[in-house]
Design goal:
single chain, 119 residues, disordered N terminus, elongated, mainly alpha
């Protein structure tokens, strides 16, 4: 199976943080967000993009949270990529459109993707 590129992982990480909500995103990265991304409004992957631009300067707890989120995102991508290609072909990436598309086809998804969607 093909390894997901870094830019795709960061894009999906932004989506993951948006879906997980501010409480989840703030655990290990709260101080980093306040330090590097103060004044940047949440949503649209802006906080994830800000953190990425400061990747080398992030605290270890934030790096650990991002690494854990990347593992979850990669697991989701690996499980759902075939279904996304099948049901969501031509839908532009971003703003949760692929996730929404997959949700609208939830009954038809492969068991592995359906399991990842329920996490």
């Amino acid at each position: 199976m093909k390894v997901v590129g870094r830019s795709i992982l960061w894009t999906l990480l932004g989506a993951f943080l948006a879906v997980a909500g501010p409480a989840r995103a703030a655990n290990g990265c709260k101080g980093d967000v306040e330090r590097f991304c103060k004044g940047i409004p949440g949503g649209g992957g802006r906080i994830a993009a800000c953190l990425k631009s400061h990747e080398a300067e992030l605290s270890q707890p934030c790096k650990d949270d991002i690494a854990a989120a990347k593992v979850k995102v990669k697991s989701f991508v690996d499980a759902c990529k075939p279904d996304a290609s099948k049901f969501c072909h031509g839908i532009p990436v971003g703003q949760g459109r692929i996730l929404s598309c997959l949700k609208s086809h939830e009954a038809d998804l492969a068991p592995a993707c359906r399991a990842e969607m329920s996490k």
